[in-house]
Design brief:
heterodimer, A: 296 residues, alpha/beta, 6-stranded mixed beta sheet, 38% helix, 20% strand, B: mainly alpha, binds adenosine-5'-triphosphate, binds magnesium ion
Chain lengths: 296, 276
């Protein structure tokens, strides 16, 4: 059992009901090149409406997956929640507070790992802890760092640099870094996208285990139906872009802790899976047809 | 038929006698000896001016210089090692002054597009100027030949470092900056812990080019000075001792190569798999 070594003063460890996310009326338009100079150079591009009026309420400590056809705007939405990108209209509230920029209350696991190549595994994680808790004694920072390295199963690799790690190990460092700052909300953009099936399954189990240990609000972007069903309380299905919307939100009622091999014993598992497959293939088919029409 | 599926080991092509490196070395030695033979015959048959020594004479004199590098018989008669130390000291000081200006300026211009654009005309115009053109201006400004030499070395070695530092700082992978932002890192912390380490490979490769240029400039800069390998070249030309000049050219080349290799090592050390 882990001991919580975080000082009492950190906000997220005191308030266990924190971490609700409310997305209201969020649209995102990527503005094209339309200036006079662009027109003269004949390189104008039209505006692109990626997201159209997204509304989503996420209660604290729920695990939400977002699934949808490629290019529909999932990363765009996650970046808006993270505060890395601004919505064109609408707003995101975290615990009632409007999001104006990124902050350590929302830990982000990046799809491209985004580890600093000049820092070792330990330094990458310690950099995060030191940035978020600058007054914490170094000994305690090291303790937390070691705790999360052990948690993601990377003990022994502390002094390696990212280029010496496999993709799965890098992703685990990314997860440990996001968890180590103890954010109440964890945002993950296709964290297992680039991994082989075995590593993927192993990390999914690990995320499930970690989440059982310390509940958080999680938003996970994924392309995998099984992954969403294994991990989530709710699954948000998005329509294809442009102007992507939320098609439907599914509840996943299976009891926890969940075991991958036991899931398909629930009759609802197959219903949910079939519904998601129907949605994704329908969306993909329209995208494909549009592509074929455009190329004729 | 089924037998065809089983792969039989491809017939080994007969092993080449020499690998690429060995072939290249042999070719190098061949070219070198052809060159030396041409030189020797040319000098002996009067193809060049009489002051041009033969290859064998040059090699002999080269060896005398190299064999005893640290003798000191007064200001105009020093061993090649002492001359090199004098020059290296000047290059080091000039290069340090240049870098001390170039790196901070590169960081500032890399961080601020406005300052970068404002300073760009200066860089574009001053960068292509030959070191020789700076000499008289340096004398007019400094009234001192030693300082002038340092000035010329410094000003010509600023540009590659400045431009590379600016490039490295303004082109940090946005993913690293996003990590810093999501952690709520302060501007100062982002610069020192993220931007500078990320830009380090660019900065060092700029320094490497700058040092090469500083070493290149030393012969020109030492026209006005006494002591140093550049002074030696001009002095030996006045004495019409061409073998010494050729010796100096070879030594300058070798030292330049050595300096470049040192910075090459530094470059691999700071890049941590960011490149390659
Ligand atoms: N900076 C940008 N400028 C213009 N258009 C953009 C920009 N970023 C994304 N887009 C467009 O917005 C749409 C949504 O992009 P986004 O990256 O959010 O998709 P996604 O759902 O994450 O896709 P994937 O599943 O392939 O990662 C895409 O059509 C993309 O072309
Ligand atoms: Mg994406």
């Amino acid at each position: 059992m882990r001991t919580n070594t975080r000082p009492e003063s950190t906000p997220s460890s005191m308030d266990t009901t924190a971490g609700s996310v409310s997305i209201s009326n969020v649209t995102k338009v990527y503005f094209g090149r339309q200036t006079l100079a662009d027109k003269l150079l004949k390189r104008t591009s039209p505006d692109f409406e990626a997201l159209s009026a997204i509304n989503l309420e996420i209660e604290h400590n729920t695990f939400v997956s977002i699934i949808g056809p490629s290019g529909c705007g999932k990363s765009t939405l996650l970046n808006i929640v993270a505060g890395l990108s601004k919505p064109t209209t609408g707003e995101v509230l975290v615990d009632g507070q409007r999001v104006t920029g990124p902050g350590p209350d929302r830990g982000v696991v990046f799809q491209s790992y985004a580890l600093m190549p000049w820092m070792t595994v330990a330094e990458n994680i310690q950099f995060a802890i030191e940035t978020v808790y600058p007054t914490m004694p170094v000994a305690q920072q090291k303790e937390i760092m070691q705790e999360y390295i052990n948690l993601v199963g990377l003990s022994g690799a502390e002094r390696k640099h990212p280029h010496e790690l496999s993709g799965g190990m890098k992703q685990r460092v990314g997860i440990a870094r996001a968890l180590a700052i103890n954010p109440q909300i964890l945002l993950m953009d296709e964290p297992f996208g680039a991994l082989d099936a075995l590593t993927r399954g192993f990390l999914q189990d690990e995320i499930e285990r970690i989440w059982e240990q310390e509940r958080k609000t999680v938003i996970l972007i994924t392309h995998s139906i099984e992954e969403a069903l294994l991990l989530s309380d709710k699954i948000v299905m998005m329509t294809r872009g442009p102007a992507a919307r939320i098609a439907k939100v599914l509840d996943v009622p299976f009891p926890r802790p969940r075991k991958r091999e036991e899931l398909d014993q629930y009759p609802q598992y197959h219903e949910l899976k079939a519904e998601m497959e129907r949605h994704l293939t329908a969306e993909a088919r329209v995208v494909e047809e549009a592509r074929v029409r455009a190329s004729v | 038929m089924a037998n065809n599926v089983i792969s039989t080991p491809a017939k080994r092509s007969s092993m080449p006698l020499l690998n690429t490196n060995q072939k290249a070395t042999l070719l190098f030695l061949l070219l070198l000896s052809l060159f030396l033979i041409f030189w020797e015959i040319g000098a002996r048959s009067g193809l060049f001016l009489p002051i041009m020594p033969s290859a064998s004479q040059t090699i002999k004199d080269f060896w005398t210089w190299i064999a005893d590098p640290f003798f000191d018989y007064g200001p105009n008669d020093k061993g090649i090692g002492l001359l090199l130390l004098t020059s290296l000291r000047r290059v080091a000081i000039g290069f340090l002054i240049g870098s001390a200006i170039a790196i901070p300026l590169g960081i500032i211009t890399g961080l601020s597009p406005v300052i970068s654009k404002a300073i760009d005309p200066f860089i574009q115009i001053l960068r292509p100027v030959s070191p020789l053109a700076w000499l008289p201006l340096g004398l007019a400004l400094m009234r001192d030949s030693e300082k002038t030499a340092l000035f010329v070395i410094a000003i010509t070695s600023i540009w590659p470092t400045l431009i590379n530092t600016r490039f490295g700082v303004s082109n940090v992978d946005p993913a690293y900056l996003n990590v810093a932002r999501t952690l709520g890192a302060s501007r100062w912390r982002t610069i020192t812990k993220v931007i500078l380490p990320a830009a380090a490979p660019s900065i060092v490769s700029g320094l490497r080019i700058s040092l090469g240029i500083a070493w290149l400039v030393i012969v020109a800069a030492e026209i006005l000075l006494s002591g140093g390998i550049g002074y030696f070249v001009w002095n030996e030309w006045n004495n019409l001792k061409v073998t010494s000049i050729i010796t100096a050219i070879l030594v300058i080349g070798l030292v330049g190569l050595l300096l470049d290799r040192l910075f090459g090592l530094l470059q691999t050390w700071v890049s941590f798999g960011q490149r390659s």
